[in-house]
Write a structure and sequence with these properties.
195 residues, 7 helices, 49% helix, four-stranded antiparallel β-sheet, single chain, globular
């Protein structure tokens, strides 16, 4: 039976700190770790049992929205059955995160539609079956390293911003980023209140 394993905020913070330290000690690591405006969200998600992988707090001129990539653990050399179980786990976690987000928006002032947080699978289930996702992943993994399938927590309008001309966004960038960072932090506060 699938279920999320919750942790206390203290245990989640320790787990995030350990994972971050292990990641930063890799020889090819070039980042500076989890950024301060997304760290509370990462910790709150881990406390609820969601396995975070990468994150970004958002940046002016690059991407005006914060995001978190989530990915259940899987071995480096998984079998087809293991990847199918991995996708089943993703579907379950995605559904649980969507339920939390739905509850969050019922209790929080709803922002404009482009700011609404949502969970997104890395593939479109209506267009690609789990079996096709598994076959594609295993074929690519045999050729070179590729991250296992996962899912994202991000703002619904994030992809639209990447298509707008820079001159239209320039005067609004700081406010767009501040609003979206605050939406993520508000969700983190909501998650903490549910522990």
């Amino acid at each position: 039976m699938l279920k999320l394993t919750r942790l206390s905020l203290e245990a989640a913070t320790e787990a995030v700190n350990r994972a971050e330290a292990a990641y930063m000690n890799k020889p090819d690591f070039v980042d500076k770790g989890i950024e301060p405006n997304i760290r509370p969200v990462v910790i709150a998600l881990v406390a609820h049992g969601f396995p975070t992988q990468n994150s970004c707090e958002g940046h002016l001129g690059l991407n005006l929205y914060p995001w978190i990539r989530l990915e259940p653990e899987i071995s480096d050399t998984p079998t087809r059955d293991e990847v199918l179980k991995h996708l089943k786990r993703i579907h379950y976690e995605h559904e649980q995160l969507e339920e939390l987000l739905g509850d969050f928006w019922q209790h929080a002032p709803r922002p404009s539609a482009d700011r609404e947080l949502h969970a997104t699978l890395e593939w479109e289930p209506r267009e690609q079956s789990d079996e096709e996702v598994v076959d594609e992943y295993l074929a690519e993994l045999a050729q070179h390293f590729i991250a296992p399938p996962g899912y994202w927590l991000q703002c619904r309008g994030a992809e639209i911003l990447t298509q707008l001309p820079g001159e239209l966004l320039a005067p609004l960038q700081e406010q767009i980023l501040a609003n979206r960072q605050q939406d993520m932090l508000d969700f983190a506060e909501y998650l903490r209140s549910k522990l």
